[in-house]
């Protein structure tokens, strides 16, 4: 008899739904301490709920909460003393980066702090053509590398203390990068994965996705309007839906290697972002995947030595200057590659929003998470995917 699989597990993760609802109720009317208190309550609750698989219908719930938020609350977030302090901190670090990295300050500001204001139009175009603009949006790659290096050195057997150190690192990283949607998404994902580890449970990535989506909206209800938010969650959705399935197709010795994970993750993320990338940029930098993998070894050097140098520059300028040399060399290497790389991207038309919706539906129906029988090909999903691509070039 053919094995039947449920489409959904019926008990969704309550923390994600609660976070989405609070995103609509609180928003910009709530002072900073209320948002922090809500997060402090939601995160421990979610720790006991991550063993339940989520239903993707939590995403429409969160979207509806944002629509209510738009109607009920003002469009601008008020600035308080905390926001002013964080703005001054970020400004000081940007100034330190300018002093230490000199001719490569624009690239260093972007990679370390997610700031593109110092980047010229020509440099922006070169990085866009090479598909490396994601390096200037502090996100999962940055958080994984930086937290991985620091966290291992301070991790203890006390799980609560280890989680507290991780939370402080992530909070500081979010603060100095301006609490952008991409870094919030990466931080909440890291928190969710650590919670599942503390609970000694296997991480359920759909639950992590919904939790991260809701918590990001809670912290910044209007972030959904930004391109960074949309591309960040599209990339994460692609990895959640397909990265595991793609890795299973590889031979066993290669399946869990760092290179295999990087390649599969990049491909799955590109599949998830494809229609939005075409919609906003009308080009596809096919060279981005191999180039990103080639440059991954430089990122730990830039992030570790770069952050240490800009943090210490105000109190130990000579030590900071010495520490900045490896990071400067890595940034210079990255800049030379981008300046000498002349590989045109593929020009593709911007899809109609209805086509984007059809494409996303097709991805869901192609994913093993939504198959009644995982042993059969996802004919419905593949058919809708083919129809969306056909309509893409006809409409």
Which short descriptors sum up this protein?
395 residues; mainly alpha; two-stranded antiparallel sheet; 18 helices
Strand content: under 5%
Helix content: 55-70%
Dominant shape: globular
Major sheet strand order: 1-2
Oligomer: single chain
Q: Biggest sheet: strands, sense, closure?
A: 2 strands, antiparallel
Average pLDDT score: 75
Q: How would you spell out the order of helices and strands? A: HHHHHHHHHHHHHEHHHEHH
* Separation of the first and last Cα atoms: 44 Å
Low-confidence stretches: 1-16, 51-59
Task: Please give the count of helices.
Answer: 18
Number of strands: 2
**Whole-angstrom Rg:** 21 Å
The chain-level structural class is mainly alpha
Question: Would you kindly provide a written description of the structure presented here, covering whatever features stand out?
Answer:
The chain is mainly alpha-helical and 395 residues long. Helices cover 70% and strands 1% of the residues. It is built from 18 helices and 2 strands. It has helices at residues 14-25, 32-47, 58-72, 81-101, 105-113, 121-130, 140-154, 159-176, 181-198, 205-219, 227-248, 252-255, 258-281, 288-295, 298-312, 317-340, 353-366, 379-394; strands spanning 283-284, 346-347. It has a two-stranded antiparallel sheet with strand order 1-2. The protein is globular and about 65 Å long. The chain starts with 13 loop residues before the first helix and ends with a helix.
């Amino acid at each position: 008899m053919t094995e039947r699989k449920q489409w959904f597990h019926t008990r969704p993760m309550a923390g994600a739904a609660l976070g989405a609802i609070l995103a609509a109720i609180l928003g910009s009317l709530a002072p900073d301490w209320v948002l922090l208190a809500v997060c402090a309550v939601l995160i421990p609750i979610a720790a006991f709920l991550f063993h339940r698989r989520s239903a993707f219908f939590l995403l429409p719930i969160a979207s509806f909460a944002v629509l209510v938020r738009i109607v009920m609350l003002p469009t601008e977030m008020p600035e308080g003393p905390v926001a002013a302090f964080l703005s001054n901190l970020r400004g000081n670090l940007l100034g330190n980066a300018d002093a230490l990295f000199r001719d490569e300050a624009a690239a260093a500001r972007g990679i370390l702090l997610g700031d593109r204001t110092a980047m010229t139009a020509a440099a922006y175009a070169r990085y866009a053509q090479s598909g490396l603009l994601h390096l200037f949006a502090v996100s999962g790659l940055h958080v994984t590398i930086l937290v991985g290096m620091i966290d291992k050195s301070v991790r203890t057997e006390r799980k609560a203390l280890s989680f507290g150190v991780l939370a402080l690192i992530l909070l500081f990283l979010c603060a100095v990068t301006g609490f952008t949607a991409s870094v919030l998404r990466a931080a909440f994902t890291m928190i969710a994965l650590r919670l599942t580890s503390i609970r000694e449970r296997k991480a359920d990535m759909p639950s992590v996705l919904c939790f991260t989506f809701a918590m990001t909206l809670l912290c910044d209800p209007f972030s959904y309007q930004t391109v960074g938010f949309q591309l960040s969650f599209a990339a994460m959705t692609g990895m959640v839906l397909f990265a595991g399935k793609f890795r299973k197709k590889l031979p066993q010795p290669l399946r869990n290697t760092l290179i295999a994970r990087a390649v599969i993750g990049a491909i799955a993320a590109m599949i998830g972002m494809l229609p939005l990338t075409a919609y906003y940029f009308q080009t596809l930098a096919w060279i981005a995947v191999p180039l990103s993998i080639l440059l991954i070894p430089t990122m730990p050097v830039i992030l570790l030595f770069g952050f240490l140098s800009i943090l210490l520059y105000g109190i130990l300028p000579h030590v900071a200057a010495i520490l900045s040399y490896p990071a400067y060399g890595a940034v210079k290497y990255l800049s030379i590659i981008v300046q000498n790389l002349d590989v045109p991207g593929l020009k593709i038309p911007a899809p109609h929003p209805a086509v984007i919706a059809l494409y996303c539906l097709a991805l869901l129906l192609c994913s093993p998470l939504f198959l009644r029988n995982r042993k059969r090909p996802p004919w419905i999903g593949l058919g809708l995917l083919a129809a969306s691509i056909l309509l893409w070039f006809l409409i």
